[in-house]
């Protein structure tokens, strides 16, 4: 799977002269750790820093970005493919100017499209990627075949965990599975619901230590998010916490975390180096195309 991904990545880079958006998958080893909330507030935080950002709900089993934002998507990516709609038709212009796309509950049907439908979809996604800086993908928690395939197709992965031992164990399981197929994948860890900054550092160091020892994998610690009651209130209000309580501890932590991500050397050329959605979906469906032509 790794060799196939590298071939596809190189092919797309040769065919695309223009800069494309960088794709970030936000994932977790288990549900209930605040993954979708991190993805939503991350997207808005990037926008506050002048980055053109789109949020893509690809949690196939428990999509809840609509609940966190208080909106109901009219159309999905599947509608675009099956009904021949334009990309603008399925992009939601949500609150705060955030652009969103819902994958839809039938996202698995992407793996059964004919070549004409696939080419049309990739052309539309290619246009989108060239006018954005970042595309945030809220993926499913855990290690389903679909979520693993999604994560292997992006530029960067933000792995959300909590200090709880079960959450850390499941997070390591995700790291191990990803490294099995691509040991060079860009992994960043975020520790959510910490009572102190030290708790976040200790949790991240445990993951970094075992990943280095058993997988020879370096993982970057981006930061922590505090166990802030404002987050719960924002969820009940169906409003992102960085908008409802911009001065709260969690909002300040998201700002620090976002700045740290953007300041890494890899991001100096983010627009040039990003693969974008076209590459993402090409890599995602490639195994199924090969099966169909073999």
Automatic annotation (TrEMBL):
Keywords from the named record: ATP-binding, Cell projection, Cilium, Flagellum, Nucleotide-binding
CDD domains documented for this protein: FlhG-like
Pfam families with a match to the protein in the record: ParA
InterPro entries in the record: FlhG, MinD_FleN, P-loop_NTPase, ParA/MinD_ATPase, YlxH/NBP35
Keyword set includes ATP-binding: yes
Listed PANTHER family: CELLULOSE BIOSYNTHESIS PROTEIN BCSQ-RELATED (PTHR43384:SF4), SEPTUM SITE-DETERMINING PROTEIN MIND HOMOLOG, CHLOROPLASTIC-RELATED (PTHR43384)
The name this protein goes by in its record: Flagellar biosynthesis protein FlhG
């Amino acid at each position: 799977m790794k060799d196939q991904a590298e071939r596809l990545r190189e092919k797309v880079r040769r065919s695309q002269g223009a800069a494309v958006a960088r794709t970030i998958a936000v994932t977790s080893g288990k549900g209930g750790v605040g993954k979708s909330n991190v993805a939503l507030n991350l997207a808005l935080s990037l926008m506050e820093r002048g980055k053109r950002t789109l949020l893509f709900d690809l949690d196939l089993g428990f999509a809840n970005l609509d609940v966190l934002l208080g909106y109901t998507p009219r159309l999905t990516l599947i509608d675009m493919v099956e009904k021949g709609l334009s990309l603008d038709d399925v992009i939601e212009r949500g609150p705060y100017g955030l652009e969103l796309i819902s994958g839809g509950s039938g996202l698995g049907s992407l793996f059964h499209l004919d070549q004409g439908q696939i080419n049309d979809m990739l052309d539309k996604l290619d246009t989108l990627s060239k006018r954005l800086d970042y595309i945030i993908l809220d993926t499913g928690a855990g290690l389903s075949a679909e979520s693993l395939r999604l994560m292997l197709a992006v530029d960067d992965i933000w792995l959300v965990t909590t200090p709880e031992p079960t959450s850390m164990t499941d997070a390591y399981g995700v790291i191990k599975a990803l490294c099995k197929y691509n040991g060079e994948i860009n992994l960043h860890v975020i520790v959510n619901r910490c009572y102190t900054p030290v708790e976040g550092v200790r949790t991240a160091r445990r993951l970094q230590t075992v990943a280095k020892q058993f997988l020879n994998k370096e993982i970057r610690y981006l930061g922590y998010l505090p166990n802030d009651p404002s987050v719960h209130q924002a969820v009940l209000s169906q409003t992102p916490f960085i908008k409802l309580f911009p001065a709260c501890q969690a909002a300040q932590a998201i700002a620090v975390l976002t700045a740290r991500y953007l300041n890494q050397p890899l991001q100096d050329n983010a627009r040039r180096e990003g693969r974008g959605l076209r590459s993402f979906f090409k890599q995602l469906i490639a195994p199924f195309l090969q099966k169909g032509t073999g």
